[in-house]
Amino acid sequence: MTETLDPEDLKIITLARSARARNGSAEGAAVRDETGRTYVATNVALPSLELSATQVAVAMAVSSGAASLESVALVSEADEPGEKDIAVVEDLGNAIIFLAGPDGVVKGRYI
Fold it and tell me: Comparing C-alpha atoms, which of 107, 98, 106 is closest to residue 29?
């Protein structure tokens, strides 16, 4: 994808990549709320609980008082965000989801 990204969007992609690499997780995500606060997470894969990185990051934002999201970055080997990822982002408005590979190259833009 040859699109020029806003520096703040590049920042959340970098944060998501870093979290994924640091934890050795399948996914990393970062979300920016309406006030500019950023929340970074990786997926959770426990016997009793499975959440995508996007779901965890959005839950962190909501539990911290966020009312809406400006932007979401998901770093994954996947070819597109999952339906639940899109749904949880839509719950908080019309934020753009940037899907990037582990190398940071943006593979798609959603919502």
Answer: 98
**What integer best gives the mean pLDDT of the chain?**
95
pTM exceeds 0.85, yes or no = yes
Q: What are residue 83's DSSP bridge partners?
A: none
Residues of the chain by 3-state class (helix, strand, coil), percent to 5: 30, 30, 35
CA distance 73 to 29: 5
User: Is the distance from CB of 11 to CB of 75 less than 8 angstroms?
Assistant: no
Provide the pLDDT for residue 3.
Answer: 63
Q: Are 14 and 98 in contact (CB under 8 A)?
A: no
pLDDT in tens, 85-105: 999 999 999 999 999 999 999
Which two tokens mark 38?
């950023």
Residue 91: C-alpha distances to residues 33, 52, 62, 106 (Å): 13, 15, 11, 23
